[in-house]
Amino acid sequence: MTTPFFSVIVPVYNRAHVLERALRSVLAQSYQDFEILVVDDGSSDNPRAVLDKIRDGRIRYLRQENQGGGMARNTGINAARGRFIAPLDSDDVFLPLHLERMRLLLDGKENVVGYARVLVNRGDERTFLKPPRAIGANEDMAEYLLCERGFVPTITIVVERETAQRVQAGHVLVARAGGGLPPAVAQAAAKLPGARAAGMVSTDVFLLDRHLTNGGDSWDAAGLDPAATRGMLDLDVRAGSLDGVRGTGIAVSDTLAKDGAKIGRVLQARLADATPVRLRVVAIYRRANGLGDVVLPRELALAHASAALDSAVFVAGHARGLDAIVRAYPNAVVRSRAAYLDDVKAQAQDNAKAQWVIVALMIGIAAMAAFNTGAMAAAERRRELVLARLGGATRRQVIGSLTLETIVTTFAGIAAGIAVALASLSRVGDDPAGGPLVVPWSQVAVVVAGAIALGLIGTLVPAALVGRARLTALAGIRE
Question: pTM to 2 decimals?
Answer without folding.
Answer: 0.54
